[in-house]
C-alpha cells in the first residue's frame, strides 16, 4: 500500500514536501506548521487548512472483546 504524499505552503506560498501524514503531524507538533497552514495531498486539486486535514476521522480501534466472545458467553448460559 502506497503512502499518500502531502505538501504544505510556506510563508511565500511555495509548496514544501513531500511529507507523509505522520511527518506533517510532527511538523505541527514542532510548530513548523499551524492549523491555518495550507496543505494538499499529491493528486488533489484543492488546498485545505491543516486543521481540516488533521481532523479527518481516524479508523476506530477494535474493542478488546469481540462479538465472538459475547456470543460464546451467551451460548454457555443456555440450558
How would you characterize the overall build of this protein?
With 79 residues, the protein is of the alpha+beta class. It contains three helices and four strands, in the order ββαββαα. Strands 2-1-3-4 form a four-stranded antiparallel β-sheet. Strand 1 (6-9) and strand 2 (15-19) form a beta hairpin. 11% of the residues are buried. Residues 56-62 have low confidence and may be disordered.
Assess the beta-strand content as a share of residues.
15-25%
Low-confidence stretches: 56-62
Find the structural class using helix and strand composition: alpha+beta
What's the main sheet like?
4 strands, antiparallel
Number of strands: 4
Q: Average pLDDT across residues?
A: 78
Proportion in helices: 25-40%
Distance between the termini: 49 Å
Q: If strands are numbered along the chain, what order do they take across the biggest sheet? A: 2-1-3-4
What's the quick description here?
The chain has 79 residues and is an alpha+beta fold.
